[in-house]
Amino acid sequence: MEPIPVVRFEPPAVRVVDQSLLPAEERWIELRTLEQLEEAIRSLRVRGAPLLGVCGATGVAIAAGVDASDAGIRSAAERVGRVRPTAVELESGARACAEAILGLPEGERAGAAWRFCGEYLARRQEEDRRLAEQGVPVLRPGAVLTHCNTGSLATAGLGTALGVIRLAFARGMVERCYVTETRPLLQGARLTMWELERSGIPAVLLPDTAAAALLASGAVSTVITGADRIARNGDTANKVGTLQLALAAARFGVPFVIAAPRSTFDPACPAGSAIPIEQRESSEVGGWGACRWTVPGAAAFNPAFDVTPADLIAAFVTEQGVIRPPFEVTVPAFLEQSREGAPA
Ligand code: MRU
Q: Where do the domains of the chain lie?
């Protein structure tokens, strides 16, 4: 089982699959400047929490080729880290790359930063494999429901929730995957359906609004999603719509599971109320590109993420083990015992 390639380092540039065009077109784009990378992150050409970590590190590598001074590197890390506020890995990836090179002579920093990016990516890919192994026994056999996109396009590895689903399918434990379309940018309909088709996994697409009815019908054995930031008490930010899935799953007795690596946990964040939630343009809700379906200038409520309270979550699957309730005890214990990038 191999990841779908989505990123290639070609110093002084990085090449990525432009996810905004999928599934109609599979186009690789080259990003050479910090501005180009920032635009690609903002417009979701590259997206997904772990891949945003890779992008954060890459932003520092690109910037180090232009200005390798302490001030230049620190300001690039800060700048790229705040392009999207919710996924903790964007800022932590940028910070980690900056810290790895700041002690070196200026002339060696850009090269070291690109090496860091390669190692960081390889570590993420290895973590995805271990996470998938941990997750398979957590799923109840049958059909799974997932939200947004958590596959290779989101991590550059096997994926988090989708990595678990892939491995469980290969082992005969998953018969089909229900996929919410994930309004308004359709990461489920466009990206997850594309990945599942490539993996040969039977997939059924549903409008976000049909998820509660599907869960009520008894057709789903487990709901599994990824995460963008997990607080110390287990409250979890993920793609908007996750909260309503978790609520409906609780009502109908379906386990709701989060799959995320150690790097998605934010030890500095005490609870979900402290997670910054990205608010996006109203225009994303009222249409798609040139096709508009609401009145001109319609106001919209368009948060990119929501926060699921820990008490709705049955388990966290990480590459370093499975965490079960009571999360206010077990998540801090996990954070103390584990560390980012720890070997298997
Ligand atoms: O806005 P996006 O597409 O970057 O949001 C992505 C998600 O919410 C994913 O579920 C999350 O990043 C986990 S990816 C393994």
A: 7-128, 130-338
